[in-house]
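Methods — Computational structure assignment.
A single polypeptide chain was analysed. Its primary sequence is given first, followed by the predicted tertiary structure written as C-alpha cells.
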Amino acid sequence: MTFRRHDKCYWIFIFNIATMIKLLIWQNKEYLMAKIDPLVKDFLAQKKIAVVGVSDKRETGCNAAYKRFKDAGYTVSAVNPRLETFDGDPCYPDLKAIPDQPDAVFILTNPRITEQVVQQCVDLGITRVWMHCMMGTKPGLAEGMTSVSQDAVSLCKANGITVIPGACPNQYLNPDFGHKLMRVMFRTLGFHKVN
C-alpha cells in the first residue's frame, strides 16, 4: 500500500502513529523522564565544552555536535591529536593543551581512547563527561558503534565525575527532526535510562 500526502489514509496513519507515541509517553512519563534528563540539563548548563574526536576525513556526529555547541553559544574546544585546526578554530592534541580548561567534555572516540580522555579529566579536575552512543545508555547495545567504555564509566564514578554513558547531545541541543525522533524512540524503548 502506497500513501501520498494528500490521501486521507496517509493522514489517518500519521495520526495513529502520533497517538500511539503520545500514549506511550503519557503512560511511561515518569520512566521516560528517567535519570538522563537532569544529567543532560547539568551538562548543557556548562559554558566551556571540549569535543573530543572531531574529524577532517568525513562528517561525523562529533563534528555535528561541535557545530551545534558552537552555534548555541558555547565556548567549544576541538580535540584531535592529528589536527591543528578544525572548522577554522584551533584544535588541541589533548585536554591538557587547551588554554582555558573546559567545564565539561563530550567524547566520540574509540572506547580505548575514551578511557585515556577520562583519565585526563581526572587529572585536570573536570567533573562532567558525556560519552557518545547513538543508541542510548544501555550497556552493550551498540557494540562497535559506541564511545562508552565501562572501565571509563567506573573511573568517572570513582573520581566524582558526573557521567552520561551514552546517548547524543544532538538529540537534546536544538535537535533536528531525525534526532528528535531518535530521542523519543530510544526513550520509549528504555534506552535512555541511566543507573
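Note: The first strand starts at residue 48 and ends at 52.
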